[in-house]
């Protein structure tokens, strides 16, 4: 399958941007003294960081072992073969799509909570836990925190779209190649030399 169709670099770049957004999320959650600001946003950022570092490590490791996940189908004349991937690249794997979906959902929930707190203020928040320590609450830090969380949400959404589209293209291409091979249609051949 052509490498240009399944280029994981946009997802890796978005992962790097997401890691950069997580660092101010943690720092701002420590500076702001609202209960949800401290625990919710820091927890979301830490979960995102754990996923991203695990993803980058697995992607790096899978690049080293990329040839082991291929199936070579040898043609009759044995001068050429069709190489088919058995599983998608790590960036487009179902596991990564599911993990990114989970992270997107919890970030969306955290963002909606932070928007509520930011617009109403800590003392008038619909969440009683946020009223604790509201005398130390800082609206500028709260706005910055909500903005960073929103940027993280958009980054995760873009990564999720790229992952899902790549996984769909992978299975479409694999199904097309298998059908072409099965029915004897013209198959693009990869030279073994």
Please provide a written account of the structure.
The chain is mainly alpha-helical and 193 residues long. It has a domain at 9-66 and 89-164. 67% of the residues lie in helices and 7% in strands. The chain has 5 helices and 3 strands; from the N terminus they run ααββαααβ. It has helices at residues 9-31, 35-64, 94-120, 128-131, 139-183, and strands at 70-74, 80-85, 190-191. The chain has a 3-stranded antiparallel sheet, with no helix packed on it. Helix 1 (9-31) runs antiparallel to helix 5 (139-183), helix 2 (35-64) packs antiparallel against helix 3 and helix 3 (94-120) runs antiparallel to helix 5.
* Total helical elements: 5
Strand segment count: 3
User: How is the main sheet built?
Assistant: 3 strands, antiparallel
- Secondary-structure element string: HHEEHHHE
Residue-averaged pLDDT: 77
Shape estimate: elongated
Strand order of the largest sheet: 1-2-3
The CA-CA distance between the termini, in Å, is 17 Å
Query: How much of the residues is beta strand, in percent?
Result: 5-15%
Poorly predicted sequence stretches spanning 5 or more consecutive residues? 67-83, 189-193
The whole-angstrom Rg is: 23 Å
| SS-derived structural category | mainly alpha
Helix content: 55-70%
């Amino acid at each position: 399958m052509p490498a240009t169709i399944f280029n994981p670099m946009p997802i890796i770049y978005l992962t790097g941007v997401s890691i950069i957004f997580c660092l101010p999320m943690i720092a701002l959650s420590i500076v702001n003294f609202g209960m949800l600001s401290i625990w919710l946003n820091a927890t979301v950022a830490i979960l995102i960081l754990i996923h991203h570092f695990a993803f980058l490590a697995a992607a790096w490791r899978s690049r080293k072992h990329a040839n082991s996940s291929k199936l070579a189908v040898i043609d009759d004349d044995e001068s050429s073969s069709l190489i088919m991937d058995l599983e998608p690249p790590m960036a487009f794997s179902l596991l990564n799509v599911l993990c990114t979906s989970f992270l997107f959902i919890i970030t969306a929930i955290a963002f909606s909570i932070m928007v509520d707190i930011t617009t109403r203020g800590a003392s008038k928040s619909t969440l009683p836990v946020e009223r604790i320590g509201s005398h130390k609450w800082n609206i500028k830090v709260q706005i910055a925190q909500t903005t960073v969380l929103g940027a993280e949400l958009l980054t995760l959404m873009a990564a999720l779209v790229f992952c899902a589209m790549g996984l769909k293209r992978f299975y479409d291409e694999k199904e097309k190649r298998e059908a072409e091979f099965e029915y004897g249609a013209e198959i693009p051949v990869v030279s073994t030399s």
